[in-house]
Amino acid sequence: ALMERYTPMAEEPLTVAMALTPHLLVEWLACHSVLLYVTHSVCEATSLLQHHIDLISCSPNTLGSLWVEQLSEVLVDLHYTHTLHTQSSYGPLRATLVKAISMFPNNLSLLNILATIETRSGGGGTPLWKLVSHFPPSAPLARLVLVFVVRHRLASYIIEDSLGGSHYLKNLLRQLTSERKTRECPLILRLALQLAAATESAVQIKATFYKCLQACPWVKAFYMDAVKFLPEELSEIQDLLIEKELRLHTTPEELEILRD
């Protein structure tokens, strides 16, 4: 009866007011599923949510898509809570999470859980080729999260083949710096510069630095990074700062370090 009442509303165009307003359908199903989880089992709770997710029409930019996204968050949260408390397999959680992110690749709540389980010792460990394949280049936010997952694995020695990990990281950043929506993102460009500093020659580091300046010449962090990675180019970097009319504020101690 509840679904019959709300099904016609699912095709309504989504507005900002709708996105910011609690919805009875979502609230009721969330409460019911949590009650089932506490009193019965995780299977009954997740089955209830999945059943209603499958029933709701999920056309883009409609109220139905908002309901499905919010219910997917609840579904993933239930799997995540159950996995942590029972120390059971991450398989069902990972499968549900990947499916949800493939539908809503910009959902930060889902991406946060993905990053958590894929960097948790003993929890994640999905092969990188498989993890990357789940998210096409059209999902830049999801791929940015994957960049941090790979960086964490490299730093934590979770990736046995560091060259393979660097290869995936390089490809992810190359795609992100080529995408129209992300090619001028200072964060992504700094990540690319840091990777070049860790894996490339001085010539390539300098080329990456100039690529960063070409995209975002006003970002002072690029110049500070370049001073650390290319200390022999300090005079040239200072000239660039003067040319761009940028000012950096440093302490006398930091200035002495740079001069040395």
Proportion in helices: over 70%
Globally, the shape reads elongated
First CA to last CA: what distance?
75 Å
Order of helices and strands: HHHHHHHHHHHHHHH
Structural class: mainly alpha
Number of helices: 15
Radius of gyration: 23 Å
Kindly report the average pLDDT value: 83
Q: What percent strand?
A: under 5%
Poorly predicted spans = none
The total count of strands amounts to: 0
Keywords: Nucleus
GO cellular component, one term: catalytic step 2 spliceosome
Family: Belongs to the NRDE2 family.
Subcellular location: Nucleus
Topology at a glance:
Layout: H1 2-6, H2 16-20, H3 24-39, H4 42-55, H5 63-86, H6 91-103, H7 108-119, H8 128-133, H9 140-155, H10 162-176, H11 186-199, H12 202-215, H13 220-229, H14 234-243, H15 252-259
Main location: nucleus
Keywords: Nucleus
Family: Belongs to the NRDE2 family.
